[in-house]
TrEMBL record:
<dbReference type="GO" id="GO:0045892">
    <property type="term" value="P:negative regulation of DNA-templated transcription"/>
</dbReference>
<keyword id="KW-0238">DNA-binding</keyword>
<dbReference type="InterPro" id="IPR036271">
    <property type="entry name" value="Tet_transcr_reg_TetR-rel_C_sf"/>
</dbReference>
<keyword id="KW-0805">Transcription regulation</keyword>
<protein>
    <submittedName>
        <fullName>Tetracyclin repressor, C-terminal all-alpha domain</fullName>
    </submittedName>
</protein>
<feature type="domain" description="HTH tetR-type">
    <location>
        <begin position="6"/>
        <end position="66"/>
    </location>
</feature>
<dbReference type="GO" id="GO:0000976">
    <property type="term" value="F:transcription cis-regulatory region binding"/>
</dbReference>
<dbReference type="InterPro" id="IPR009057">
    <property type="entry name" value="Homeodomain-like_sf"/>
</dbReference>
<dbReference type="InterPro" id="IPR004111">
    <property type="entry name" value="Repressor_TetR_C"/>
</dbReference>
<dbReference type="InterPro" id="IPR001647">
    <property type="entry name" value="HTH_TetR"/>
</dbReference>
<feature type="DNA-binding region" description="H-T-H motif">
    <location>
        <begin position="29"/>
        <end position="48"/>
    </location>
</feature>
<keyword id="KW-0804">Transcription</keyword>
<dbReference type="InterPro" id="IPR050109">
    <property type="entry name" value="HTH-type_TetR-like_transc_reg"/>
</dbReference>
<dbReference type="Pfam" id="PF02909">
    <property type="entry name" value="TetR_C_1"/>
</dbReference>
<dbReference type="GO" id="GO:0003700">
    <property type="term" value="F:DNA-binding transcription factor activity"/>
</dbReference>
<dbReference type="Pfam" id="PF00440">
    <property type="entry name" value="TetR_N"/>
</dbReference>
Length: 205
């Protein structure tokens, strides 16, 4: 077992996500992580002090996969691109969505991304209070729809592809079919995000 030469945050994050995606976040331990990375547990402790710090690191570093907005770009286009990429990251890694729902994102990557969004909105003429509201609304929308999408996918898999029980809404014409088609697709998420962003940006945008 190696002592940790060449071990960096990127390797730790990738190994942690691989375990969480395959077996669930509960299976991520320092011992398991060190075994998968072929390093001693102490090598990991050089980067994080405990499991809480490990998860904080994973959440923050994972956001590097989402290219930040360009404050000089078109506000609507930049927010749409960023929002869709962030949503896709969470859908592809359900463990991230699970942990983000219970932890504050205060790492340098998250703070930097938020700062660029606020700079973009300031340039668009969005008042500070509205910009702050939109930032919170964006995160809530992206995380919430990702969690809903993940849970619907899991429920559909348990029911063999059926979103609802066979006897749901019997006797109400069309109701079952309509409620069965409430999944969040990429296209539907884009429509939701469009309404949210358009509602906050100044009319000129």
């Amino acid at each position: 077992m190696a002592r940790g030469a060449g071990l960096d945050a990127d390797r730790i994050v990738k190994a942690c996500l691989a375990i969480a995606d395959e077996e669930g976040i509960g299976q991520v331990t320092m011992r398991r992580l060190s075994r998968d990375l072929d390093v001693t547990p102490m090598a990991i402790y050089h980067h994080v002090a405990n499991k809480d710090e490990l998860f904080d690191l994973v959440l923050d570093e994972s956001l590097r996969a989402v290219e930040p907005v360009d404050p000089a770009g078109d506000p609507f286009d930049e927010l749409m691109r960023w929002g869709r990429a962030f949503h896709r990251l969470l859908v592809d890694h359900p463990s991230l969505a699970q942990e983000m729902a219970s932890r504050r994102l205060e790492g340098p990557v998250a703070v930097g991304a938020a700062g660029r969004i606020l700079d973009l909105l300031a340039r668009a003429g969005t008042p500070d209070d509205r910009a702050d509201e939109l930032l919170v609304a964006l995160f809530s929308c992206i995380l919430g729809t990702a969690q809903y999408r993940i849970s619907r996918n899991a429920e559909s898999a348990r029911r063999g592809g059926r979103a609802l029980p066979e006897d749901f809404a019997d006797g109400r014409a069309g109701m079952r079919d309509r409620l069965s088609d409430t999944s969040i697709t990429d296209q539907r998420f884009a429509a939701i995000l469009t309404v949210l962003i358009r509602g906050y940006l100044p009319a000129a945008h």
